[in-house]
Fold this protein.
Amino acid sequence: MTPLKLLPLYAALALTAACGQLAPRPDAPTLAKAQAPAAEADAADEAEAAPDAEAEARAKAEAALPRQPLTPELLLKFLVAEVAGQRGAIGIAQTTYLDLARQTRDPRVAQRAAEVSAFARDPAGALEATRLWAEADKDSLRAQQTLAALLLSEGRLAEAEPVLRALLQEKPAEGFLHLAAAIGKMRDSAAALELVRRLAADHPQLPEAQFAIAQAAASAGQFDTALAALQKADSLRPGWEPGALLHAQILARTSNAAALAFMRTFLAEHGDAREVRLAYARTLVSANQFTEARAEFARLTRDFPRNAEVSLAAGLLSLQLGDLDAAHALLTQTLEYNPRDPDTIHYYLGQTAEQMKRADAAAMHYEQVRSGNHFVPARARQAALLAQAGKHEEARALLAATQGQNDAQNVRLIQAQAELLRESKAYAAIFDVLSEGLKRYPDAPDLLYDRAMAAEKLDRLDILEADLRRVIVLRPNDAQAYNALGYTLADRTERLAEAIELLDKALALAPEDPFILDSVGWAQYRSGNLARAQQYLERAYKVRPDPEIAAHLGEVLWAQGQRDEAGKLWQASLQTHPGNEVLLETLRRLKR
């Protein structure tokens, strides 16, 4: 369990209590005083010089806090909660903080209890603590917002409505935008839509209210209602980009062409709408209209110079189109524009440099990736570049010394270590690396799947089957796990009926996957159903002319006496994949 990173709210608490009596006295320190952050004590001199208004506000806020004596019992609970959180015992920390919140009715303690309950994924505890927080600090906008969000997520719309209505009176525009973001997470989308309509009725001239209706309607599948609300929002505030972007997203669910047409019309009237133009350019990329997309990105970089988001998008498009010089120039410029996520830019600069055959430059950029989603892929590419240069020990040492930021990244690092060994076909070493990783993460589906593949190479079919069956338990809709187990049973055993059942399940999950079609065809061949085998294999080869599929299809043709057709198929595949092991083994076996 990940330890809870607690804020130092109680740093002064232990020091105060260490000098106190075992029983409270009339002048004993109160919770309100003991809970003040240490930083406030350090800044006492500065506070004396602050304007009178600020001092009065602080005094008023402190006076409103409950005057709870700091008893030994309270102190012990605080220490238990702190230590438990630091050591990863989140359940103990959460229940202790919640008990403290009930006992003290202090808004800061209740806020902490709510935060820890959310971290512990205890919605009931989070809701109770947030209620205490909101009751203890009725002026806290954050407490009221958190309470409303928790009530919505639990589907308690009747309780949420008065809280939302009060919030919307304070900051209606901001409130409706927050509400729109929360609506998509609600289970009863029809009830959510009715709630938003009732709340929006109090704000008929507010485009954000119509935006929230549109978001709720879209979540409920009522797209015509959503588009009508967005048209009303546009009439209230012509050229409003958030509404236009949602309009385009709703249209794109059924038709990219309709979304493009809408954005084209909108941009003709509002040419300076940067976010819509950026979405338009990205939609053009999705529609494979690269020439038009490049023209739009060129306009964006001209109209919005030194904009990191624009230059990054243009650089990635150039990389996708294979214009490496333009990609390198645009991504390098992006780094000069103070981007929010420089790690991402360094990662794609590394990708660009690799494609330009500049290994040293690529490694330099990958090394600059220090966090985020690209951290582990960057280290994996660094290691791969070292291995390509013959520095295998350095490559393995780099990955072994890298610590991920979470369990998912650490699992990916173990996979990267195994991948380094794959080129040298060191299957025993791959198996050992993955087995060590599974000691740390015994239920990591990706490690189990990869070890199963290594076990197959070592003829350890018992481990392959056990690992893949465990993957199926952990990920019941993993088509590739069913496929790998079914194919192995069909290819390496006589358990053909069981293999076909597994492969039928895989095909139901991914009916157009060419490798699953290939496996089904091979199982039919092994069962003696040559005509059905040929049908599946021809479908697979049409989708993907892979050499292993060619090997299987050719063998079925050969078995049916169509040897000229089989030979032509194999020769064509050998021209593009001359070293494929499965294809070469098939040819050797049938020639014998």
Summary: Residues 358 and 371 are 23 Å apart (CA to CA). Residues 5-47 have pLDDT under 50 and may be disordered. Residues 509-592 form a domain with the Serine Threonine Protein Phosphatase 5, Tetratricopeptide repeat fold (CATH 1.25.40.10). The first helix runs from residue 11 to 18.
